[in-house]
Amino acid sequence: MSAKKYLTEISSIINKVMETQLDNIKAVAEIIVDAAVNKKSIYVFGCNHAGILAQELFYRTGGLAIINPVMAPGLVLEARPVTLTTGIERLEGYGEIIADSLSLREGDVLIIHSVSGRNNVPIDMALRARELKAKVIVITNVDYSSKVESRHHSGKRLYELADIVLDNCGVYGDAAIEIEGLPCKVGPTSTAVGAAILNAVVVECAELFLQKGVTPPIFISSNVDGGDEHNARILEEYKDSIHYM
Question: The domain 6-237 is classified under which CATH number: 1.10.1060.10, 3.40.50.1100, 3.40.50.10490, 3.30.1440.10?
Answer without folding.
Answer: 3.40.50.10490
